[in-house]
Write a structure and sequence with these properties.
272 residues; alpha+beta; SH3 type barrels; six-stranded antiparallel beta barrel; 4 helices; globular
Length: 272
């Protein structure tokens, strides 16, 4: 498992430091891992697409992709532009958001079995995340430079009524990608695209209703005393039903995989 929100934070940080754009002027060109025509291809950029650029060398522009990774596009195939185009009002932003989240989940799943020479698991996940995300954006003719806007979009609501349900201060430890264990309890929390690493991390679990939507968030402090403002949506709550070394399980895709942890969905119950 792996999300989304660490990548969003990295993407936002890099966006703030460099708001320059390039536009593709050829039908379809390669995005490369390094500034060389012999470098591996990350994906394809289509004619008219606009990317954030955050650096350059004599023949290449460095572009920022949704994962927060910087990749390279050949200069002769693009032109510099001063701003992004507007996203059409006819697009359903929440539907696109959900498709991007599904793309993120697919990248998480596929990175567990994909093997790419000289890349570790996290690098493979980033590569797949960018490939899948670009396909979604291209399907809606949305510029990759607008990824930040899409993922932070929220539908305007009338009263914006928030009804708190619970707040729990816990200690959590990172298990794998976006999976955390609540220390001393048989509770596992799966978030979307979070790379908050470490053990015995102080965190808050917030539950509330936003209008009619039930929301669960796992929130961390970015610095001591800064407040629990670094929040990630909780995707699922699990409990462990088996924990032994060298277990073999059959996945929904019909594949046998080794594991040492078997989880079952549950509801969050924190002892008083």
């Amino acid at each position: 498992m792996k999300h989304l929100f660490f990548k969003l934070f990295l993407f936002f940080t890099l966006c703030v430091s460099a708001q320059e754009y390039i536009q593709i002027v050829k039908p379809s060109i390669n995005i490369r891992m390094e500034p060389s025509t012999s470098s591996p291809i990350i994906g394809s950029a289509l004619n008219g697409e606009i990317y954030i650029t955050n650096g350059e060398v004599p023949k290449w522009y460095r572009v920022l992709l949704p994962s927060g990774e910087s990749r390279w596009i050949y200069k002769k195939l693009v032109q510099k532009v001063i701003s992004k185009s507007m996203i059409p009002d006819s697009l359903d932003m929440l539907v696109i958001q959900e498709e991007l989240k599904i793309a993120s989940d697919d990248a998480n799943k596929d990175s567990n079995v994909e093997m790419i020479k000289d890349l570790n698991k996290i690098e493979i996940n980033n590569l797949l995340f960018d490939q899948y995300t670009l396909l979604v954006l291209q399907n809606y003719s949305i510029n990759p430079a607008d990824y930040e806007y899409i993922m932070t979009y929220s539908h305007p609501s009338g009263t914006g009524i928030i009804q708190p349900v619970s707040e729990n201060l816990v200690s959590v430890s990172h298990i794998d990608y976006d999976l955390f264990k609540v220390d001393r309890l048989n509770i596992y929390i799966e978030t979307r695209r979070c790379f908050k690493l470490g053990a015995a991390l102080d965190a808050m679990i917030f539950m509330y209703y936003a209008n009619e939507d039930f929301v669960q968030k796992l929130c961390f402090e970015d610095g001591y005393g800064s407040g629990f403002d670094n929040c990630y949506n909780i995707k699922n709550i699990y409990k462990s039903v088996m924990e032994e070394p060298n277990l073999v399980v059959l996945t929904k895709e019909g594949k046998m995989r080794k594991t040492n942890l078997v989880l079952k969905e549950t509801v969050l119950k924190i002892p008083e």
